[in-house]
From TrEMBL:
<dbReference type="InterPro" id="IPR015391">
    <property type="entry name" value="SurA_N"/>
</dbReference>
<keyword id="KW-0677">Repeat</keyword>
<dbReference type="GO" id="GO:0050821">
    <property type="term" value="P:protein stabilization"/>
</dbReference>
<comment type="function">
    <text>Chaperone involved in the correct folding and assembly of outer membrane proteins. Recognizes specific patterns of aromatic residues and the orientation of their side chains, which are found more frequently in integral outer membrane proteins. May act in both early periplasmic and late outer membrane-associated steps of protein maturation.</text>
</comment>
<dbReference type="Pfam" id="PF13616">
    <property type="entry name" value="Rotamase_3"/>
</dbReference>
<keyword id="KW-0697">Rotamase</keyword>
<dbReference type="InterPro" id="IPR000297">
    <property type="entry name" value="PPIase_PpiC"/>
</dbReference>
<dbReference type="GO" id="GO:0043165">
    <property type="term" value="P:Gram-negative-bacterium-type cell outer membrane assembly"/>
</dbReference>
<keyword id="KW-0413">Isomerase</keyword>
<keyword id="KW-0574">Periplasm</keyword>
<keyword id="KW-0143">Chaperone</keyword>
<dbReference type="InterPro" id="IPR050280">
    <property type="entry name" value="OMP_Chaperone_SurA"/>
</dbReference>
<dbReference type="GO" id="GO:0030288">
    <property type="term" value="C:outer membrane-bounded periplasmic space"/>
</dbReference>
<protein>
    <recommendedName>
        <fullName>Chaperone SurA</fullName>
        <ecNumber>5.2.1.8</ecNumber>
    </recommendedName>
</protein>
<dbReference type="GO" id="GO:0042277">
    <property type="term" value="F:peptide binding"/>
</dbReference>
<dbReference type="InterPro" id="IPR023034">
    <property type="entry name" value="PPIase_SurA"/>
</dbReference>
<dbReference type="InterPro" id="IPR027304">
    <property type="entry name" value="Trigger_fact/SurA_dom_sf"/>
</dbReference>
């Protein structure tokens, strides 16, 4: 078995223990350290569980299980990469709020047939006490690693304006950003083993070559453990389809289907029926906005900042000039130099709290003080307009497609560099690839 296949298997089985009732239970962890990665330790129990999960999945797929020594080295390498990434998560101070974690865990719960976190916790802890907490920790690590990868890998992707222009002039680019598409969409989910879901998805993809009847496919493949949801989406702009799906559809010719698309909510397959020119303009509401920001610091406490912004707000209500107060007191140097002006702002450009206040403030009005992660603000919406953002949208879509093409190769390069630059000590020398003949 090739190493790359094991890498894919390890990723696919990261949560297998928790979403497959057929998975065996494992012995309690021991404290034997087999490897050190930065400030983190990999225990013998971590390796044993990873090997058991991988072997279980290979057996379920009726594939040959490699010798245990080989499997141990490959799984250990994956654990090292995982821990090296978690070291970077700690270094960059990435955090996960409770709501985001709960939402991520709930998606796993739904895949296993549980409709609430409470029911899911009871189900898992009935297997062994602490299983649910272990799941939450693993999901949190997974989400944080994905955020780290997006942050680090996206910064390595370089797409020039010329790259964008060339793409938009190509047939593929014209199809991607200038068309409406008629698409069939099927989602495969459920509490069946991952390999069973993948086999069903492959059969559906094959049937789509000769059939457009999504309802028939739903009935044919849905069972107690596999759920098929199909929809004929009709003609719609590519912009109305989630970007991770539209980027796949944009490269298809009518009659073709996408490869299997893996997501947290299951496997997706799309078929392009037809495409036509889209003449609809992308009109976006924009707000001409200026603001005053008071930041907190070692000297200015949150309470002090709140008092300062309230004092400024009272002066504005009493008739003082916004531009003068912004230039004098705002801690946002970029806008303070321009009387607090942020120019024309589109929804989504600012943090959610700022966005919400901006969109709910009438033209000519001043908002009440409000807080964001940057400090305390007052904003004024000076004017509101509808702007044709079609060209900007097309360029953004082009960058998205070109970026997705580069992401996997840049990710591989970043992971290799991370592994090479991370302190790793393998205590059990029999597990060290350096001591093995290739």
């Amino acid at each position: 078995m090739k190493t790359q296949n094991l890498k894919q298997l390890f990723k696919a089985t990261a949560l297998a223990l928790f979403i497959s009732s057929s998975m065996p239970t494992f012995a309690a962890p021991t404290n034997q350290v087999i490897a050190v990665v930065g400030d983190r330790a990999i225990l013998k129990s971590d390796l044993d569980q990873g090997v058991a999960e991988a072997a279980h999945q290979l057996q379920a797929q009726k594939k040959e299980v490699p010798p245990v020594e080989y499997l141990q080295r490959q799984i250990l390498n994956q654990l090292i990469i995982q821990n090296a990434q978690l070291e970077q998560v700690k270094r960059y101070g990435l955090k996960l709020d409770e709501k985001t974690l709960n939402d991520a865990v709930l998606k796993v719960a739904n895949q296993s047939g549980s409709t609430s976190l409470e029911a899911f916790q009871q189900k898992l802890d009935a297997i062994a006490p602490g299983t649910y907490e272990g799941l939450r920790n693993r999901v949190a690590d997974d989400v944080l690693i994905q955020r780290l990868r997006q942050q680090q890998v996206m910064s390595r992707i370089k797409i020039s304006d010329q790259d964008v222009e060339n793409f938009l002039k190509s047939p593929e680019g014209q199809a991607a950003v200038g068309s409406e598409v008629h698409v069939l969409h099927l989602r495969i989910s459920g509490d069946a083993a991952p390999e069973e879901l993948e086999n069903v998805a492959k059969q559906i993809k094959n049937d789509l070559n000769t059939s457009n009847d999504v309802k028939a496919l739903e009935q044919k493949f849905t069972n107690e453990h596999v759920k098929i949801e199909g929809a004929d989406m009709g003609f719609r702009p590519l912009s109305a389809i989630p970007s991770e799906l539209s980027a796949r559809v944009s490269t298809l010719n009518p009659g073709q289907t996408t490869d299997l698309i893996k997501a947290q909510d299951g496997l997706h397959v799309l078929k392009l029926i037809d495409r036509k020119g889209n003449e609809q303009k992308a009109l976006v509401t924009q707000y001409e906005t200026r603001h005053i920001l008071i930041k907190t610091s070692e000297i200015v406490t949150p309470e002090n900042a709140k008092q300062m912004i309230e004092s400024i707000y009272n002066r504005l209500k009493a008739g003082d000039d916004f531009a003068t107060l912004a230039s004098t007191y705002s801690n946002d140097p970029g806008s303070a130099r321009d009387a607090g002006s942020l120019g024309w702002v589109s929804p989504g450009m600012m943090v959610p709290e700022f966005d919400k206040v901006m969109q709910n403030t009438p033209a000519g009005e001043i908002s009440q003080p409000f807080e964001t992660q940057f400090g305390w603000h007052i904003l004024q919406v000076q004017d509101i307009r509808k702007q044709d953002m079609t060209n900007e949208y097309q360029k953004r879509m082009a960058r998205q497609i070109l970026g997705e093409r580069q992401f996997d190769s840049e990710l591989d390069g970043w992971l290799r560099e991370l592994r090479a630059n991370t302190y790793v000590e393998i205590k059990d020398k029999s597990l060290d690839d350096k001591n093995q003949s290739q």
